[in-house]
Amino acid sequence: MFTKTSLTALREKLVKREITPAELTQEYARRMEELNPALNALISWDTESALQAAARADLSLPLGGLPIGIKDNICCRGERARCASRMLENFVAPYDATAVAKLRAAGAIPFGRANMDEFAMGSAGENSAFGATRNPADESRVPGGSSSGSAAAVAAGIIPAALGSDTGGSVRQPASHCGVVGLKSTYGRISRYGLVAFASSLDQIGTLTTCVEDAALLLQFLSGHDAMDSTSSLQAVPDFSAELHGGVRGMRIGLPKEYVSSGNAPEVQNALNAAVAALEAQGAEICEISLPHAEAAVASYYIIACAEASSNLARYDGVRYGYRASETSSAPGDVYARSRTQGFGEEVKRRIILGTYVLSGGYYDAYYTRAQKVRALVAQDFARAFEGGVQLILGPVAPTPAPKLEAKDMTPLQIYLADIYTVPANLAGLPAISVPTPQSGLPVGVQLLAPHFEEARLLRGAAVLEQSWK
Amino acid sequence: METPRIDVAYIAELAKLELSDEERARYTRDLEQVLAYVAQLEKWDTQDVPPMCHPLEVYDALREDVPGQSLSNEAALANAPQQADGQFRVPKVVESAH
In this structure, are A14 and A103 located in the same domain? Predict the structure, then answer.
């Protein structure tokens, strides 16, 4: 009865007393019981506590009584936060992530831990220690990743909205593959406190929602400086919904020629063409721009992301928390290495090894420093485009629609290369959003990018696309 | 830059990971392929480009040094795989005194 109903519409039902918060949570729990076994979108949940929270829900609060799914790498006090890894199989979060605390303060009810690629490393949702998630649009296909469960759950109507995290496209790409809206805000807009670190200079919590309006609504409550995250921004938080329907008349929107590639699947090219037509019809001017270092983004990204990951994941040593292997000798190094060896999955180890390599003596400058310099060039491309007079940039999200599950013929490099359109926003710290396009077949999204802290403009462009296709 | 043959066994040791022969062979193959690809970073002129380690420049980000609530001893130890006497228990690292 609530398949893909927006938070705003649900709120209206609650406020008009057409339904109680407990009934609403009950209804989502029922849908979850019915649909989750086939999809494996949520990997744990506590219906009892959610119902208790619903019974206490304060409808005078802006998100009062609304259940929101949480990716398994974001801490909710007293609930498991496993990062879909054996390493954290028994980990119970001792505190709320700031993003979760802010949602609770606005009245929302965190409900369900969403499946993901282990430690957010992957783009298909298949690198989970708790099994792959399936795409609700076609269960023989992947939902994308790494926020696989968040996207699939929202697309299936198991939850009305969810938090994900986006280090290189992990919110936007599964949103595109599942047909929902995925927003990654400017780096620093949302506190990372309580988000399990993967690559700290790239990570950002994001939202998966059924519509652009909900993305604006959640961003409003998630944004703002946090003393617990020194990289969170002091920038003022504007009213993201105020200009949501202001339109794009007179706006110049850049289409990078490097993104109109023969490597794009026909559906992706069609989606891009449809977006161009929709924006032009609403009075925007689409102009060709160039991002000369676009092709260097994936190489720069994987060096930086893996280097930061190898450092961040050094904390998992089986002492303070996480999996600990049994002691067979007295040397502590043995326990550390065995715990890590048994606790981490294949892709996590692959990235730790790559990251350790590029930071190791003799290779640091050749790989890591060079990747950071190229990162600056990628960021400069965007800065020049925006200085050159475009207000937004339009592009694809992924080169193809969702691939089949268990496509074992792909090498890791081929998988990494499919991130070409999403990693630049993380390297440059820009806000970006994936919006579903009308499709007769599999879902395909298009992406808009905006200058730092211009989420209001980004959402306005996204709302135009959404309205055009209603 | 010439793609060096990556010594995965040595790198795994640095990263405290134990690899089987099969894993070592697989990671060697995968990573050499990735390194051959990222060698393209050589072709961009980066001589006068400062390395970018962060998307936004952040200065003076330390918060005021005021006492606040932190985790209790019990909460901090709640996830410890092994604990004793209110502390994390680690494998023994020194010889017993005779």
Answer: yes
Q: Within this chain, do residues A171 and A310 fall inside the same structural domain, yes or no?
A: no
pLDDT at B4: 60
CB contact A330 to B (< 8 Å): yes
pLDDT of residue B63: 84
- Please judge whether B81 and A412 are an interchain contact, meaning their C-beta atoms are less than 8 angstroms apart: no
Judge whether A134 and A40 are in contact, CB under 8 Å. Answer: yes
**C-alpha dihedral, A402 to A408 to A413 to A417, nearest 10°:** -10
Q: What is the CA radius of gyration of chain A?
A: 21
**Model confidence at B50, in pLDDT bands (50, 70, 90)?**
very high
Query: Which of chain A's residues have a Cβ under 8 Å away from the Cβ of B73?
Result: none
Average pLDDT, chain A: 96
Contact B90 A413 (CB under 8 A): no
User: In chain A, positions 121-160, which contact chain B (CB-CB < 8 Å)?
Assistant: none
Q: Domain tally for chain A? A: 2
Give the pLDDT confidence of A407-424 residue by residue, as tens digits.
777 899 999 999 999 999
Residue A252 belongs to a domain: no
The interface predicted TM-score (ipTM) is 0.93
pLDDT at B92: 76
CATH code for the domain in which residue B28 is found: 1.10.20
**Cβ atoms < 10 Å from Cβ of A285:** 16
Q: What is d(CA B5, CA A351) in angstroms, rounded to the nearest whole number?
A: 17
